[in-house]
Design the sequence.
């Protein structure tokens, strides 16, 4: 499977390094064994951010001397390939400079041979509630970072106060009306990001009795689909929809992309046909949504046990609904398990 890439961006002083450093520290505190790749891009000749990050359970590469979105395109390609080929990674975090624009980075990730190894999982933009409105006139990248964000994390709201924070959030909503916007402290943002970016389990929960109701939508008992194992503290619920048959991958991607922003993390493993590839051959595929971004990739046939071959789709977020998730897969032509 391709390695998920999370781009952490935001204007100068918004708290990018503080956030990434906190994520790494949390991994060290729990003795995390999975490997995280970290790429730090610093605008100056000497990358100060790299020294601040440390190496808590991560492999770090620094890209000094230029902005990764404009002058370091080829070097970014080489760096990503080097990271992925060196050892198994659970994910890669790319911390951009304060003036980087996300769109050229997304284009770079879609070029071969990078695309075969890495998928862009999410663009996470940090917004400093104390400075965002004033900084918009300083650089066009301020608005671009927000407009292309899948998730916007508002920082320093405890310093800015409610009035200035509300004003910053209102401006963000105009620039990115569908993006997920979250307020919180650095530690809250780090904990939330770790939880959302981790792959949810895609195996059938024990004791689930699922069947289509009168509308053809799957039913999953509430005690099985909504749980509080670490999620309740962050307002995160989970619903699970079993699927059989073959999905129109492009249609399912479109359906999932239209879900509201409370569907903050979706993962599915199912059989799919992708007409964009020029073939009508069905193959096992993993599909992801983080924030607004939907991506997919071919995977090896999973072992669901007990001789079953049905796939499934899992959604995480506040007040997520299995009926809504089921409607997406029905619209995409999937036959749901009965």
Sequence:
């Amino acid at each position: 499977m391709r390695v998920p890439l999370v781009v952490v961006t935001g204007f100068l002083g918004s708290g990018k390094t503080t956030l990434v450093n906190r994520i790494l520290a949390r991994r060290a505190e729990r003795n995390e064994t999975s490997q995280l790749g970290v790429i730090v891009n610093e605008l100056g000749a000497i990358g100060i951010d790299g020294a601040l990050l440390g190496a808590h359970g991560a492999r770090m590469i620094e890209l000094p001397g230029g902005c990764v979105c404009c002058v370091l395109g080829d070097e970014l390609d080489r760096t990503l390939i080097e990271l992925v080929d060196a050892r198994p990674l659970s994910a890669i975090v790319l911390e951009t400079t304060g003036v980087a624009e996300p769109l050229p980075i997304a284009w770079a990730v879609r070029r071969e041979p990078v695309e075969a190894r890495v998928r862009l999982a999410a663009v996470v933009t940090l917004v400093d509630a104390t400075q965002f409105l004033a900084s918009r006139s300083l650089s066009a990248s301020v608005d671009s970072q927000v407009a292309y964000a899948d998730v916007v994390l508002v920082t320093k709201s405890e310093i800015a106060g409610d009035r200035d924070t509300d004003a910053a959030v209102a401006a963000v909503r105009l620039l990115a009306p569908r993006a997920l916007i979250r307020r919180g402290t650095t530690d809250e943002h780090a904990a939330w990001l770790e939880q959302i970016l981790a792959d949810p389990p895609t195996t059938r929960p024990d004791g689930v009795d699922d069947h289509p109701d009168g509308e053809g939508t799957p039913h999953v008992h509430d005690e099985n689909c909504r749980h509080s194992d670490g999620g309740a503290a962050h307002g995160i619920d989970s619903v699970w929809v079993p699927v059989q048959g073959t999905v129109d991958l492009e249609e399912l991607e479109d359906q999932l992309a239209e879900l509201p922003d409370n569907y903050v993390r979706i993962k599915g493993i199912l059989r799919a046909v992708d007409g964009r590839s020029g073939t009508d051959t069905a193959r096992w595929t993993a599909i992801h949504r983080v924030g607004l971004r939907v991506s997919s990739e071919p995977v090896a046939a999973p072992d669901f046990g007990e001789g079953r071959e049905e796939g499934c789709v899992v959604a995480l977020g506040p007040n997520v609904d299995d009926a809504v998730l089921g409607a997406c897969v029905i619209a995409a032509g999937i036959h749901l398990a009965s």
Q: What stands out?
A: Confidence is low (pLDDT under 50) at residues 43-52, 64-72, 206-233. Residues 288 and 295 are 5 Å apart (CA to CA). Residues 3-197 form a domain with the Rossmann fold fold (CATH 3.40.50.300). The first strand starts at residue 3 and ends at 10.
